[in-house]
Structure formats: C-alpha cells, structure tokens
Amino acid sequence: MSDVSAHSTLLWWKEIYRHQATEVWLGFVLLLACVGLSFSTEQFFTLTNLFDLLNASSINLIFAVGLLVVLIAGGIDISFAVGASVVQYLVATTIIDLGGGSWAMGVTLSALVGIALGAINAALIHHFRIISIVVTIATFNAFFGLLMFFTRGVSIYNLPDWWTDRVIIFEHEMPNGSWAELTLPVVVMAICVFATWILVRHTNIGRQLYAFGNNPEGARRIGINIGAMQYIAFGWMGMMAGIAGLMQVNYAQEVVPNAMYGRELDVLAAVVLGGARLGGGRGTVLGCILGVMLVAVTQNGLNLLGVSPYAFKMVVGIVILVAISVSNIDWSSISFGNRKDLAKGGAHE
C-alpha cells in the first residue's frame, strides 16, 4: 500500500511539474534567495522587513497581473506606469475640484480613466494594425510628455484625508518597540490578483485570450472577436494601472508626476520571469506573483547588503534578455520527455 501511495505521489508531482515547471523552479529559486539573504544579513528575515517588502511590492503586483493579461493575449505594454501617473493627476484634480470625494469615487474614477487609456492603446493596435510595442512606446512618450507639460512637474500634496490616511490591516509590535504593519494596498492587491485569476482561468474570455495569444489567425477563424480581445486585454491593463496609481498615492501620500517612471521594465522582467511568454498564449497568475516577489526580494537584498542600485537595473536587464532568449523553450518536455522515445533510442544503441 505504501509503495502504491508513494508511486501516486510521484506521479502527482510529475504532473504538476509537467504543467507548472516554471513556477516550481521559480519557487525553489525564491526560497534559496530568501535563505541566502537570511544568512547574509540579519535585517532581511524580520517581520518588519517582510511586511515592508510586501507593502512595497503590492503596487508592482497590481501592475503585473494587468500586464500578464496583455502578454497572454500576445501583446506588450510599456505605457502602463506612465498611464498610472496620468490617472493619479486626473483623479486628484477632479476629486479636489469636487470637494474631497471618497474611496468609492476614487476607485471608480481611477478604473474608468485607466480603462480609457488602455482603450487608446487597443484602438491604435487593432484599427491601424500597428504592433503593440510600437504603439505603447508612442503612448508612453505621449502620456508622459503631456503630463509634464500640463503639470509643469509640480507635485500635489494637498490631498483628501481618506486618500492619504494610512489604513493598517494588521500590525504587530516588535521587541525593539517598532511596529510591523500590513496596509491597505496589500488587500487591494489580493483582490486584483484574485480577480485576474478568475478572468484568465475560469471564464470563457480567459480561454479566448489564451487562444488568441497562441494563434491569432486560428482564433479569428474559429469565431473569436479579435478586436474584443485587444480591448479586453489592454482595458484590463489600464484598469489595473489606474488602481495601482490610486494605491501608490495612499502609500506615498503625495502625487508626483514622475514617481512611476521606470517601473515598467521592472514589472515586465518580473512577469516574463514568472513564465509569461512574450509571444503570447502562456502565463499564470502564480508565476506572475513568484516573479514579482523574486525581483522584489533581489532588490531588497541588494539594498540591505549595500550594493549599488545600478546593480539591480543590470539584473533586470539580464532577466529580460534571458527571458526573451528562452521564452519559446518547453522546459517540461526537456525535463520529463517521452520515456518511450528514450527507450527506443537506448534499444537502437
């Protein structure tokens, strides 16, 4: 009985590895990184640092699940971080003009403005047949240029209390008198992650996004609305960017026009590291989470070790380069190939 149980367990693990090889390896690397940093610096494996790490990573995780949907659909978006800054300014000025607003108004406005910005990208890509990276490079520069022109680079500090008040979800007093705190962005991030998981794994739209990303022409032939897929993917990205912008203001307690500038490559590196294929048709929410956390842990560890922040940018560049190089390799088939073929090869020898 124990042999049968052990064999069943082995088959179960092989099946998991076959379908989620990237996630398994990434989880293993993340675990090794955490263990290594725990021995390298005593500051890393503390509740305060881990909570701070999660609070700070929440914004990138919200961005990441939005970008995941775009990558699954075969697109790419590098304008989302600047788009989030545009959302911040438009929502902040609107709410101030209306006399203060509320969380409900803030979330609604942020989502709607974000969706509108995403729809601009989708319209250019679908109706003018321009590849997504070219479109989003253009909108990245257009959004940022317009933002800096109209705001003159001036930050907004006089924000409503509901937006800037620190909402603590969980707190624990440390022996040294400091507090380890989990804040509102973590909860919002969890909701966004769950919503994205439902979308891509448990809806017909999600299945169509995978099919479209894997084979656009084949998807069109079986009746999938190609235009709708573009609008859904980039609209979801825009909505996540808007919500992330709202949460970033709550975290930083100010609106700064260039605060998000440069985050797009960090998030892109994390998502492709998590297994999303730049060619489309592949990617999971779990891999996305692991990728973001590995990048965050790497950055946090380098900071604690006193390494130059430029080293982190180098790591991000290497990750993107490697991800592009190996994105089409099926690691599961290499690790667990067809045993019959191997047996035949051995027999011929």
UniProtKB/TrEMBL annotation:
The chain crosses the membrane at residues 20-40, 61-91, 103-123, 130-150, 182-200, 228-247, 267-298, 310-329. It is found in: Cell inner membrane. It comes from the Bacteria. Keywords: Cell inner membrane, Cell membrane, Membrane, Transmembrane, Transmembrane helix, Transport. The keyword Thylakoid does not apply. One of its GO terms (molecular function) is transmembrane transporter activity. One of its GO terms (cellular component) is plasma membrane. It is a multi-pass membrane protein. Belongs to the binding-protein-dependent transport system permease family. AraH/RbsC subfamily. This is Ribose/xylose/arabinose/galactoside ABC-type transport systems, permease component. It comes from Vibrio nigripulchritudo SOn1.
